[in-house]
Write a structure and sequence with these properties.
Length: 91
């Protein structure tokens, strides 16, 4: 499911205009993007938590050039679902 399908589904379930639902989804995702790297991430009760970890630079072997390449330090975002949400998916 992509963002536009999510907006259509929420609009159908709530009987709100798609324009209003689009703004709500955009502002929710913007908040998650903005606050995930800071303040210990974003935790949504009953759904899960988004958190950010910094990955260290790594040395990797390139078989084509027969040299080592070094990657840059980067941040990665992870999502951990709550147990109740995970149980609903499993059943």
């Amino acid at each position: 499911m992509n963002k536009s399908q999510l907006v259509k589904y929420v609009s159908y379930k709530t009987r709100l205009p798609q324009k209003d639902v689009w703004m709500a989804v955009e502002s929710t995702l913007d908040c998650i993007k903005r606050y995930t790297p800071r303040r210990g991430g974003v935790k949504i009760p009953g759904f899960g938590s988004f958190y950010c970890q910094t990955q260290k630079p790594q040395r990797k072997w390139n078989a084509r050039t027969k040299r080592y390449q070094y990657s840059k330090q980067c941040r990665e975002v992870y999502f951990t679902p709550t147990r109740t949400w995970w149980k609903n998916i499993q059943s």
